[in-house]
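Handout, section B. The chain below has 82 residues.
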Amino acid sequence: MNLDLLVSYYILIGGGVNEVFLRVNFLRRLIPNFDSPVIGMTHFAVMLFFAALIAYFNAATLIRSRASPEMLAGPQSTPSGH
């Protein structure tokens, strides 16, 4: 997965967190203002989630790039000596 896509998605979800706290009445009642620690903790959880996703995709790319060419090519039939 492209890192640019993950960063764009993170920005989209971060804006979504703000919108949810703004529009959902139940959540709006939980926070006195937008400097509330609840919003900060929610943004921190989103940030940790996306940091884990970035680490996962970086590790998967590293493992895939270090795989031997034989593994990437898959099983091949060898010509018999006949």
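Note. The helical segments are 3-23, 25-30, 37-66, 69-73. Compare this with the example in section A.
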